[in-house]
Design a protein that fits this description.
The chain is mainly α. It has seven helices and no strands. The radius of gyration is 18 Å and the shape is globular.
Length: 217
Amino acid sequence: MNPYFKAHQILLLCGFLAGLLALKKSRILLPVTIIFIVTAVSELTGFFTTKYYRNNLPEFHVLNFLLIPLTAWFFYIHLESPVFKKWVRWLAAAAMAFAVFNTILNGFKSFPENALKVSSCAVLVMATFLFIELMDRPAKENIFKNPVFIVTLAMIWVNLTSFVFWLLFSYFADHHIPGKPLTLLHYVSNYVYYGLMLIAQIFTYTSIKYHGKATIA
């Protein structure tokens, strides 16, 4: 198991455990906690299927199917604008429909590159909606300690870098360029993403001075 993957799994485990602690005080990041465990299970499954069956591509399809509604759920419960909420529903539905269509068309044994690009674009738009609302908060509020704001930044970061990664990945593959720098970029991007999500969970546990109107059904 390579050291980058180990560090990645440790971050996911820490995020999940911090999420469980945070849930004792507030459920505002429940979708994030579920994202941590779903991602960890998916990547461990992918590691073992690669090792024993030489193919982990189905895990990318399944993980995308799960992350689309989970991510949309997070934005939906924290957005206040009915218009933005409506857009989140439509974006999630469109991204999911495209992901299913892509899998039916190409099969589970192909890499869902196009579906991941569409999902990244959809999440970027959702994150922009929430970012706009959060930036409109009173100046006296330190939004950099707001767990929801931190998660929103993390979502913007990882989806921007992921979109660039998939574009460069195709270019590198087409021109037979060694992909090690891209792999490193991917891991670093994920470290930043899950690190920010972990910080958000810690802030939720240590202080719940969040004044949003989110409710968890």
